[in-house]
Amino acid sequence: MDYFNYKDNELYAEDIKVRDLVEQYGSPLYVYSKATLERHLRAFEDALVSKDHLVCYAVKANCSLAILNIIAEFGCGFDVVSKGELMRVIAAGGDPQKVIYSGVGKRPDEIEFALSYNIKCLNIESESELYAVSKIAAKLGIKAPVALRVNPNVDAKTHPSISTGLKKNKFGIPFEDASRLYQVIKNDPHLEATGIDCHIGSQMTSGGPIIEATDKLIALYHELEAMGIKVDHIDIGGGLGVTYNDETPPSPYEYLAAVLQRLKDIDVAVYCEPGRAMVANAGILLTKVLYLKSNPERNFCIVDASMSDLIRPALYNSWMNIVPAVKRPATDALPESDKNGNRVYDVVGPICESDDFLGKERNLNVREGDVLAVRGAGAYGSSMSSNYNGRPLCAEILVDGSRSYVIRERQKEEDMWENERIITDLEKQFS
Ligand code: LLP
């Protein structure tokens, strides 16, 4: 459930017409609903209330400072995958001691930075990384809190590009190696095993795979106990899916209740790392229709947002819902429309790539100048955007009831090359 709803055929973000937002702030435009975000935060917190827990929002899904700030004020922790993300969390007012750090290729300077901020836990993804962390912790004269991110070889039953828990994926430590490496940690004065971690994939639409993975983590937990190693948390990662089209994922409550049921007799805290489920449906991307054009095979609806603003359709062939800001009546239809007033359009952007589309074969009743909204764009939208084709990053707005706030200014063209240099004649002479 979200707070982007129609009233009298007009789409609202909470109490504001989205059309007015485009009028005020321009297009394309990311718009977030604070009430929706808070609703999702509450859903995760409430689901876990019966057990010691830490909800670590996966920053990669949407790293806007304003969004991170709301999440920090709510009391949640964060899952980061780079020094940049950790610095963002700190800049947004997040508590480093509620941060866990995942990622398959952490640089030594990133590890040192994270340890110097005394973060909650480093999720280790290889044997070599374990030794690197130990060396850096020794240099700092500390004991680094670590969890092994194990690869349980469980099929998340999702799109292959976002499946991470299989042997063929680059992520995690082979399950078979885990107990040996926990022994290495036990013997190392600069490492402390505080948890067991996994993340098997994203956009999971059923609870089965996470239960299968949790069972494997529990088996490992008991193995470690027998070795005299007592970890304080089990981290089930992120991955809960959302409804883009007709998917019916479990609610956070249903998803987590099943995990808690498995963990009920085990004295550990449960950590999770949700990204998409927290923010996807808390955001939309608004875009204006520039041109309509047709050929004998296709109708194209050319909009001013592109794969540089939202790459999910181009990259994963993801289906994202595209709806009009104002629903036109069937009586106000273009020639050759169906009885509902719609024509079938490919909704495409201005970028010089055939894959630059937001949606294919969509039934729409639109005109040039209309505003469309791509729903579910709050996760992996803005955070994956780029300047490709010389396109500035678009503005972002947070709506809170009847108020709207600019949380990111539209990037200026000249800011796109502010860190670039032209080689001067003098430099050419002396090189
Ligand atoms: N934890 C780790 C270690 C992760 O790698 C991820 C996502 C998450 C948590 C959060 O997963 P979520 O709850 O958001 O499913 N760009 C893709 C999604 C990539 C996910 C990468 N890892 C997309 O647009 O679908």
UniProtKB/TrEMBL annotation:
Summary of the function given for this chain in its UniProt record: Specifically catalyzes the decarboxylation of meso-diaminopimelate (meso-DAP) to L-lysine.
Residues noted as binding substrate in the record, renumbered to the chain: 276, 312, 316, 353, 380
Pathway: Amino-acid biosynthesis; L-lysine biosynthesis via DAP pathway; L-lysine from DL-2,6-diaminopimelate: step 1/1
Cofactor(s) recorded in Swiss-Prot or TrEMBL: pyridoxal 5'-phosphate
UniProt GO molecular function: diaminopimelate decarboxylase activity; pyridoxal phosphate binding
Domain of life of the organism encoding this protein: Bacteria
Binding residues annotated for pyridoxal 5'-phosphate, in chain numbering: 239, 273-276, 380
Alphabetized Gene3D superfamilies for the sequence: Alanine racemase, Lyase, Ornithine Decarboxylase, Chain A, domain 1
Protein name: Diaminopimelate decarboxylase
Subunit architecture: Homodimer.
EC number(s) reported in the record: 4.1.1.20
Domain Orn/DAP/Arg decarboxylase 2 N-terminal intervals: 35-280
Catalytic activity: meso-2,6-diaminopimelate + H(+) = L-lysine + CO2
CDD domains reported in the protein's UniProt record: PLPDE_III_DapDC
Active site: 352
